[in-house]
Amino acid sequence: MKQKKIFKNFRSYRYYKVLKLSFFILILILYSILLIVCFSESEEEKYDSPIFDGTYACHDSISCGIKYGKSACNISTDSQFKEVFMSALYTENYFKGSLLLGYTIKKYHPNHAMYLLYFPSQISASLVCQLKAVGWIMKEVERIPVPWDGHLYGNFDDQFTKLQMWSLIEFDSIIYIDSDAIVLQRIDNLFKMITPYAKFEFAAAPDVLDWQILTKFNAGTY
User: Fold this and answer.
1) Transmembrane ranges (predicted)?
2) Sign of the alpha-carbon torsion through 150, 155, 158, 161
């Protein structure tokens, strides 16, 4: 009798262990399926890149010029976009910065046009060709000189030329970013700040470099 009871208890214990193991395997399978679904939805097509982080966003500006077998110098400058990104390159000193900025903008905003204000006399044709390869649409502008005889740092001698953007009435909204910055994520939601419904015509962030200029905005991004 005692042996039968022991055997019965053993069978119950073994049944419990099998049931517990089966339940654990089921949970593991369901968790694996959930992970596969999540990663398959978030995964983007990626390409090798020596520039940024091992991914490369091929887009309409033919940044992957070699992959497509097309010349960057033949990229069309026609654009129907009303919401655009813009930067400026007045000397060749910030050329590499403009390349990286253009790449990061296009990586996260492949369907937005990018315009680069520049002085043709200051930027060589070779560099212009490379800038087009990243996706910049080159826009010639005339320099606006400093309206007074005061002293300015060398980097700011041409900064009043940014006022030329207010004459570009062919665009509805412009996000301007200086060439010493990069884009780390999508920021096209900023375009929605400048709409008839938002009732804003201009948006910028305060300059936090010095407490004495906190009441002024940073002209590097607006």
Assistant:
1) 21-42
2) negative
Residue carrying structure tokens 């053993």? 10
Tokens 């002209």 correspond to what residue?
A: 219
Q: Where are the alpha helices (DSSP H) in the chain?
A: 2-42, 65-68, 95-108, 125-134
- At residue 152 the predicted structure's pLDDT band, cuts being 50, 70 and 90, is low
Listed in sequence order, the DSSP H helices in 43-139 are 65-68, 95-108, 125-134
Model pTM? Answer: 0.60
Separation CA 107–CA 99 (nearest Å): 12
SS3 (DSSP) at 106:
helix
Residues 154, 158, 160, 163, CA torsion sign:
negative
Distance CA(118)–CA(218), nearest Å, equals 21
Residue 89 contacts residue 123 (beta carbons within 8 Å): yes
What is the identity of the amino acid at 212? Q
The predicted structure's pLDDT at residue 160? 77
For the purposes of burial, counting CB atoms within 10 Å of the CB of 148, is it exposed (0-12), middle (13-18) or buried (19 or more)? exposed
Using a 10 angstrom Cβ sphere, with 0-12 exposed, 13-18 middle and 19 or more buried, the burial of residue 18 is exposed
Is the torsion defined by CA of 10, 11, 14, 15 positive or negative?
Answer: negative
